[in-house]
Amino acid sequence: MTKLRACLTGCGDIGYKFDRETNGEGALTHFRAILDSGLFELCGVADTDEEVLNEISDRYGIPVYTDTVKMWNETKPDVITIASSDNTHVPFLKSALECGPKAVFCEKPLGLRSDEVSEITALYERVRVPLQVNYTRRFLKEFSDIGAMLKSGKFGVINSVTFYYGRGLIHNASHYIDLVLMYFGMPEEVVTLSSRSGLGETDFSYSFRLGYKGGMEVIFIALEPSRISFAEIDIVGSEGRVKFNYRNEIEKYAVTSNSSFSGYLMYELTESAPVKFKEALPAAYRNIYGAVTKGEELLCPGSGSIQIFEMIKRIKEQYNV
């Protein structure tokens, strides 16, 4: 098997340190996912955290840089990963193409505005360089299985879907907007309810409702930013219910007779299993390798971000009317 040369920019976060200190299969960071894949040679790492860079250089013997473009020019990678701060994505994505990569993997979001996301995706399509975006749940079997069950009608008629999220409409809610689009498509109606602090001055959190044909509604509830890590998804149907809870587990419920009230029904928990988030990035990199070497379709191509940002634009415009 021929390994592809890969470069990573942006690894000096708590995720790298967490991956470094834990054992087991999978990876929570791009650094670990690339290193352990067996598919790539990690030929360069760039970051602003010199402490992390020094550790990577000493521990793994991997060339390290504080200048990303210099790294690309010197190493000539096949695959470029951009995992730096959100505001750097667009300039890095443009510069990356000058190095002639075979594929680029970018953390979400591709950009901060719908126009620049459209520009970037069009640019990559024009030069035919595969562009993958890290909307994590696209690479997890647990969430693709939910999509299959929804499509098969296992949960009956879906009445409502509720999302709790915090820390920005673009930075965090975009993950769940992507899920909504994957499961249900574009809504007919968008009603923005409120706004609150999110992630800095450019990415507020919004509560909003999405209306679909037949009466189904999807509600996003924005939480105040804090150090509490909390996100939940609740999909309620006439024949069952599925929930992603605060413990990062998928709960499945069946409709059964209500033992307390004769003649009524209730949702009864039938299954609960943890989501294996450490399998997402390894799956994403296997997919990228397959796209470069075998022409496989990307699981989360950049073009999908256009609809996400169309939704984000509608939500913001609705609130500012």
Detailed description of the structure:
36% of the residues lie in helices and 27% in strands. The chain has 321 residues and is of the alpha/beta class. It folds into two domains: 4-135 and 279-302, 3-Layer(aba) Sandwich (Rossmann fold), CATH 3.40.50.720; 141-275, Dihydrodipicolinate Reductase, domain 2. An eight-stranded mixed beta sheet has the order 8-9-10-7-11-12-13-14, covered by helices on one side. Helix 2 (30-37) crosses helix 9 (280-294), helix 6 runs antiparallel to helix 10 and helix 8 crosses helix 10 (304-320). It is globular and about 70 Å long.
Would you summarize the structure shown here?
This protein has 2 domains: 4-135 and 279-302, Rossmann fold, CATH 3.40.50; 141-275, 2-Layer Sandwich (Dihydrodipicolinate Reductase, domain 2).
Q: How many domain modules? A: 2
The level of helicity is 25-40%
- Residue-averaged pLDDT, rounded? 92
CATH superfamily of the largest domain: NAD(P)-binding Rossmann-like Domain
Q: Helix-strand pattern, N to C?
A: EHHEHEHEHEHEHEHEEEEEEEHH
Under the CATH scheme, which class of the largest domain?
Alpha Beta
**Secondary structure tally, helices:** 10
Q: What low-confidence regions span 5 or more consecutive residues with pLDDT below 50?
A: none
Q: Report the sheet with the most strands, covering strand number, pairing sense and barrel closure.
A: 8 strands, mixed
- Write out the strand line-up for the largest beta sheet, numbering strands in chain order: 8-9-10-7-11-12-13-14
CATH architecture of the largest domain, by name, is: 3-Layer(aba) Sandwich
Structural class, judged by helices and strands?
A: alpha/beta
What oligomeric assembly is this protein in?
Answer: single chain
Share of β-strand residues: 25-35%
Distance between the termini: 56 Å
Shape: globular
User: Rg from C-alpha positions?
Assistant: 21 Å
Number of strand segments: 14
Q: From the 3D structure, determine the CATH topology of the largest domain.
A: Rossmann fold
